[in-house]
Amino acid sequence: MARRRNERxxxxxxxxxxxxxxxxxxxxxxxxxxxxxxxxxxxYEAATRMTIADLSDKAKVSQPTVxxxxxxLGCSSFADFKIKLATTLTVAAAYLKSDRVFDDDVGQLAxxxxxxxxxxxxxxxDQLDPQIIGEAIEALANxxxxxxxxxxGGSAAMIEDASQLSIGIT
Length: 170
Fold this sequence. Notes:
65% helix, 170 residues, 9 helices, mainly alpha, elongated, Arc Repressor Mutant, subunit A
């Protein structure tokens, strides 16, 4: 059975960043599941140590609602959710934690913007399909001509970087 171009092979399931996943699907959750999400987001670390009964009591929902919330996130069970949440927090601590403490609104705003940018990059990386990237590289390598366009500082810098990689292509 052939897989679609944007599907990952079954033997390599995508990494799940539970924190980002909660943010992405929150608007599609039921009101009860949103209460669970709010409770989890209030203190991620504490959520990794809660039992399903603790979380359902604090969110004022039933235990089956907590299970539905976990499944909405792509987890098979509450235990799976806790493992994936703990993994997300561990990775975030290793790569995204900063010792910088902001005690003003501007600093907090800057931190929020940068953390969202880091999340966007991480989500993009999670969605990359190496086979498709390889096919794109092959197509570019076999091209007689590649035109690159950009507008603005960021685009111009990326175009300049890309042009350095295309030596020999005119």
